[in-house]
Structure formats: structure tokens, C-alpha cells
Write a structure and sequence with these properties.
The protein is α+β, with helices and mostly antiparallel strands. The chain folds into two domains: about 35-180, Glutaredoxin; about 185-495, Rossmann fold (3-Layer(aba) Sandwich), CATH 3.40.50. The chain has helices spanning about 1-25, 40-50, 65-85, 100-110, 155-180, 200-205, 240-250, 280-290, 470-485, 505-510, 510-544, and strands spanning about 55-60, 90-95, 115-120, 125-130, 130-135, 140-145, 185, 210-215, 225-230, 255-260, 260-265, 270-275, 290, 295-300, 300-310, 315-330, 330, 345, 350-355, 360-365, 370-375, 380, 400-410, 430-440, 450, 455, 460-465, 470. A hairpin with a 4-residue loop joins strand 25 (about 450) and strand 26 (about 455). The relative contact order is 0.11.
Length: about 550
């Protein structure tokens, strides 16, 4: 009896000791195959360094179908993990937005509602849900859309993609609200003819995370930034400007180039003319490992364009027609930048080839469909072509790359080109530090449309014909996040949760027997354990 009391006392002391130890040492062990309950090191650092409380108001709660319940549960589990590392600096609550006034307020603040359809008692019902959250920090609010993913995927796959992206979306929003020091991005606007309002949506979004400066044809300012963006250049670069770009990369700078391989100008009622772009950057890109070809890609996977297909009486008949010069990119490389990305809208994109560059890793990011055809510039781009039925056999050029990521230590284009007495030799760098370059063969990907009735910009990627907003802005922002910090929050986009759907045929055929098994098996097991326990007790006291 005494030994039994001692054992119980030792057990209780050990239990109390473990609890005391747990209050000082935080430890979690994720036993899932995909580590779905773990968060990235970058997210942990962000949460542990918060200097104020972030309040997260989640509006996805209520009675939902299984897929949305799973997403709601993922949000709750992620926020629980956040609070484990941030302590009182993360507070959250779930709010069901049933009030129409609240729904209108959330819509005005930027949360996009979704119509949810269901069958209740044999009747089809519809209601508005808000799969997102509103983050509040020091009086500032920021909306986070949590239902994302590729819209061409099935509803189950898209919800799973949203599940995978919860950590990144929430952590990115927290960083945006709490960031104190901003890295610098230079915008080389001196080489484009595009008016500033056409870049306004992208610039307004970038300003939330970064300090922006504009070169206005001042190459001396290029070295002041961590990253340079060249948006749709129309004017050629001088040799001095090209040298400065080269040295910026040699010193570890990040470069983003959105440039057309062929320049398209409207000059005729029959169509437009595509002329080869002359930017004087071909040899620089070739040295770094790629080439933007002077052609246009025609893709059977394309957007629509309103065109005049004839007259109805004395009035023109305008109809949306497939415009194969506007490829819709829904084929992506394997990289966190484009993981679970929705389709990207392009206009007059060109193909990109890779060339040999020792030590440079080349990763295709945006790829066309396999049904493509190339039109070499100079050429006439005839509007009448949209009215013709294409022959798929002619679209046999295969998958083409329109966005390429280059990483590594680049070699300078100007090695062995400068004379010994050249004053630039004193600061010249021939072999660069590790750097990253993003090359996109469509300058229009950065350009937003304008709502001229209200004189405000449309979101980047918005197509006024379909009313859909494509993932152009997401692609640019994710790419810049990666270029700025490849080991930062962007790593959270690597999270992968395998979707394991039930066999619907077997489920239908074996539904009853599995229900009975789930109902009766626990009762039978408890009965067996109770019977064995009673038998052991009877045998013990009978022999005693």
C-alpha cells in the first residue's frame, strides 16, 4: 500500500513538473506527413518581433459545406499557431456577417464576397459568404482575401489551394501593417512612353511594403535601391546606361524587366503592325542566359477582344471574339512564386529562349499552352483573323516561356571590354555577387486599365470585357517578395497539403455498413474491455 502511494506521489510530482516546464519551454511536434500544423521560420520571426497587438477579424464562420468548414478550421489552426509565437500580440475572433450593413461595409473595405449555393430540404439556397479577414493594427485596417487559388481547378482543389495559402496570406498582411523599415525599389520610368496612371495600381500596392523612387533618366540613382524595375521600355538604352545596369547586377542588385520582343502600334483599320523592339539590351540578356525573341505568340488559350464582325443595318455589330495574340497563361513552372496562382492575362507576348550561362539557374515561371504559333516581326496583326476558325494543326509550336527567373553569380558583359586607362576600371566588377533577374516578355503585364467614367484605375489584371481580375498583380508581388528575400515569407507558399478525396462510388455502395461500423464498433470495444477487466478482477480475487 505504501509503495502504491509513493508511485502515485511520484507520478503527480512528475506531472506538475512537466506543466511547470511547459510554461517556460514552448514545444510543438507536428506528426502530419505534410507538416500542415507547422509554420515557416520567417513567419515565426515576424510574429516573435511584433511590438504591438494585431487583431484579426475572420468573417468565414457559420454552417458551411465540408470544404468551407475545412478552410475555416485551417484559418483557426493557423491563428492558434500564430498566437503561440506572438502571445498577446495576436488576438483573433470569428464573426458571422449576417447583418446587411456589415456586409456592405466589408465590401467597401475590399473583402470580396462569394455566393455559396447549397441544397436544403430539397430546395436550392444561396447566400453570401466572406472568405476573408480584416486585420487591425494601430488604427490601420487591411483586408485579406483567403479564398484564392486557380479558378480553373475544381472547387475542392481550389479550396485546398486556399488552405495551403492561409499562412502566407495572413503573415504577409501582418508584415504589411507592422513593417517599420522599408527596402527601396527603383522604377526606371525614363524609358517608357506609358503614362503614370497606367502603373498606378501596382505602384500604390508596392508603396505599402517598399520605398519607391523614380529614376527620371538619372542612372546615378540606380545604385540606391535594392531592386530595379524596368516597366515596358520603349526607348533604347544607351551604352552608359547598359553598363550601369550591368554593374548594378554585379553588385548583387535585383533586376525585373517587363519588355516586349515586338512593339505593336495601331496604324491601320485592318489591324496593327508589329515591329521588332530595339532596346539595345539583347547582348546584356544573352550574357546573363536568355533572349527575348522578336516575335508574337498566338495561343489557342486566349482572352476575348470586342471586334466589329459586320453591320446590322447601319450600325456596327460588336462581339467578343477570341484574340489569340492575348494568351491566357495558366501553365506554370515549379516555384513558390507561381504556386497555386490563378491565370495571368498577357497582351502581345513574345517567347523567351534560354542560352548557356555558366553557374546560372534558369527557372521558367509563366508558360503558354502547347497549342501555339509564332509570328515573326515585322508583321501585320490583322483584326480579321479573330473571325476565322483556327486550324489546331497549325498551332504546333509547343509550350513557350514568357517569364524566366535567373539566379546566380553573373559575369559582366564588359569583361575584357574596358581599356586599362578607362576611369571606370577602378570600380569595375567582372564577376558578380549572387543576384536574381526576372525577365518577362510582355510589358503590358504591369499596365492597369482606366475607368474613364470615374477617372480611377482598374485593378492590375482586370479585364473589362469579362469583368474578371486575373492574377497579374499577385504574380508581380510574389516575384518581388522572392527577389527581395528568397528565404522570407515567400517560403510559406511551399506548403503543400495533399487532397485525399473519398471514393464516391464505394461511399455510395458501402455507406450503410460504414455507418453501422462507426456506431457499433466503439460500443463493442468498450464492452470487450469491460468484460476483460471484470474477468481479470474476478480471477485475481478468486485466487486470493
Amino acid at each position: 500500500m505504501k509503495q502504491r502511494i509513493i508511485k502515485i506521489a511520484v507520478f503527480l510530482i512528475a506531472l506538475v513538473g512537466l506543466n511547470v516546464l511547459a510554461s517556460f519551454v514552448f514545444f510543438r511536434w507536428d506528426l502530419t506527413e505534410e507538416k500542415r500544423y507547422s509554420i515557416s521560420d520567417a513567419t515565426k520571426r515576424l510574429l516573435q518581433n511584433l511590438d504591438g497587438q494585431v487583431v484579426v477579424k475572420v468573417y468565414l464562420t457559420g454552417d458551411f459545406p465540408a470544404g468551407f468548414e475545412r478552410l475555416e478550421r485551417a484559418i483557426q489552426e493557423t491563428l492558434e499557431s500564430f498566437s503561440d509565437y506572438a502571445g498577446a500580440n495576436i488576438a483573433y475572433r470569428f464573426i458571422e456577417p449576417n447583418d446587411p450593413k456589415l456586409q456592405e461595409e466589408l465590401t467597401q473595405k475590399g473583402l470580396i464576397p462569394t455566393n455559396l449555393f447549397a441544397n436544403e430540404d430539397g430546395k436550392r439556397t444561396e447566400r453570401l459568404v466572406f472568405p476573408g479577414a480584416m486585420l487591425v493594427y494601430e488604427g490601420k485596417e487591411y483586408p485579406v482575401q483567403l479564398l484564392k487559388g486557380n479558378q480553373s481547378a475544381s472547387p475542392e482543389e481550389r479550396l485546398n489551394q486556399s488552405y495551403e495559402g492561409v499562412e502566407f496570406e495572413l503573415a504577409s498582411a501582418i508584415r504589411r501593417l507592422t513593417l517599420k523599415e522599408h527596402k527601396r525599389i527603383g522604377i526606371l520610368v525614363g524609358h517608357t512612353k506609358v503614362p503614370p496612371p497606367r502603373f498606378s495600381d501596382l505602384l500604390a500596392t508596392l508603396q505599402q511594403n517598399y520605398d519607391l523612387y523614380f529614376d527620371v533618366q538619372n542612372p546615378d540613382s540606380w545604385e540606391k535601391g535594392d531592386l530595379l524595375i524596368i516597366p515596358k521600355p520603349d526607348l533604347p538604352f544607351t551604352e552608359d546606361e547598359k553598363y550601369r545596369l550591368d554593374q548594378f547586377v554585379m553588385r548583387g542588385g535585383k533586376l525585373v524587366l517587363f519588355a516586349d520582343g515586338a512593339r505593336v502600334d495601331s496604324v491601320s483599320l485592318e489591324g496593327t503592325f508589329a515591329q521588332p523592339s530595339a532596346l539595345n539590351l539583347d547582348d546584356l540578356l544573352f550574357k546573363y542566359g536568355c533572349r527575348i525573341n522578336q516575335n508574337l505568340i498566338k495561343d489557342l488559350s486566349c482572352a476575348l477582344l470586342p471586334l466589329n464582325v459586320g453591320n446590322m443595318g447601319d450600325k456596327p455589330q460588336i462581339k467578343p471574339m477570341p484574340w489569340r495574340f492575348f494568351p491566357l497563361i495558366n501553365n506554370f513552372g515549379k516555384h513558390p512564386i507561381v504556386r497555386n496562382l490563378d491565370a495571368v492575362y498577357t497582351r502581345f507576348a513574345s517567347s523567351i529562349d534560354t542560352v548557356d550561362a555558366p553557374g546560372i539557374v534558369k527557372t521558367p515561371l509563366l508558360l503558354t499552352s502547347q497549342y501555339t504559333k509564332l509570328l515573326k516581326a515585322p508583321a501585320l496583326v490583322a483584326y480579321n483573323e479573330a473571325r476565322q476558325q483556327p486550324d489546331p494543326r497549325e498551332y504546333n509550336a509547343g509550350v513557350k516561356n514568357v517569364a524566366l527567373l535567373l539566379e546566380g553569380s553573373f559575369s559582366s558583359l564588359y569583361n575584357n571590354r574596358l581599356l586599362p586607362k578607362d576611369p571606370r576600371m577602378s570600380s569595375f566588377v567582372g564577376k558578380g555577387k549572387p543576384a536574381k533577374i526576372l525577365v518577362v516578355s510582355d510589358g503590358d503585364m504591369l499596365i492597369n486599365d482606366i475607368d474613364y467614367a470615374r477617372d480611377v484605375p482598374f485593378p492590375l489584371g482586370y479585364d473589362r470585357l469579362s469583368g474578371k481580375t486575373f492574377a497579374n498583380k499577385d504574380f508581380v508581388l510574389y516575384a518581388i517578395d522572392y527577389l527581395m528575400d528568397s528565404e522570407g515569407l515567400i517560403t510559406a507558399r511551399n506548403k503543400q497539403v495533399t487532397l485525399r478525396p473519398l471514393d464516391k462510388i464505394r461511399l455510395k455502395e458501402e455507406r450503410t455498413q460504414w455507418q453501422l461500423l462507426n456506431l457499433l464498433a466503439p460500443l463493442v470495444l468498450i464492452g470487450l474491455l469491460g468484460g476483460v477487466w471484470q474477468w481479470i478482477r474476478k480471477r485475481k480475487y478468486a485466487t486470493g
